[in-house]
Design a protein that fits this description.
By secondary structure, the chain is an alpha/beta fold. It is built from 11 helices and 10 strands.
Length: 307
Amino acid sequence: MKNKTAACLLLSVLLLSACSSQGANNTAANTSSGSNPSATTNTENSSGSGETTTPTTGETAPSNEESTTPATGTAATGETSGSESTTDDQAEAPATYTYHMDKNYNIIPNEESKETPKKVVLLTFDDGPKEKEMINSMMDTLDKHNAKAIFFVNGYRIKTHPELLKLIHDRGGIIGNHTQDHIVLKNESKAKVTQQIEDTQKLIEDTINESPRFLRAPNGATNDTVHALADKHHMLYMNWSVGSLDWVNLKDPDAVITNVMDQLHSGSIILMHELPWTVEALDRLLTKLEQKGYTFVDPNSIEPEMR
């Protein structure tokens, strides 16, 4: 009996010892595995925060790209910036030029076709802007004939009536630089020529928010300085190949028409002025040109360099 009792006591001690050992092992395992939720979360947030707030190259960290709601908004800002950058990098398509000007001041099609015929004229008007009534009448006539023209303007006139330059521009006229004071440039110093052209260029830009693409010297009196300034400001220097002589045959609309028609040839650059008798002659002149099979070249289709 004593032996049986002793055996039971020994078995009980062994069972208690085994249970105690298992409990100790479970506690140790839980502690070493970091099962504390708060401890695990803090460790992850610390790592993620480090990548979000201090990317050394300024690039968005990969973890932020995966995150849907980054606390600092860094990823969202980066995406917006990237989109804007893509838009800014999309340059406008270059203009398609279908005509060019040769050294004799004639307009030539780059490739003659039905869309770009050889039998064209370019209309130009110098020495404005002068009067609202004349400008509107000229523009009405040009619109009637689906024609465009270059208006070579003087700076001193723009200073007096900037609204008239805006009127020409708003009605579809192409603005050209005709110097500040309409002086003979070839007789002037380089500094004076520069002032005459660049002051007018800036005045036009400030008035219509557009830079002229064409330059003409008063009386066609040009020199190397004029051509260098044209190149500097990306303008095509342009004289003419047909003169209306409206500045000679004063108050004679019929003479304007006769002078143009007598000199007419394919590609003519026609010089006229903002004068009452020229304005009066314009509709009849354009009608006669059309009857001869001529069309009116758009100045915007002319290349910026002479060939």
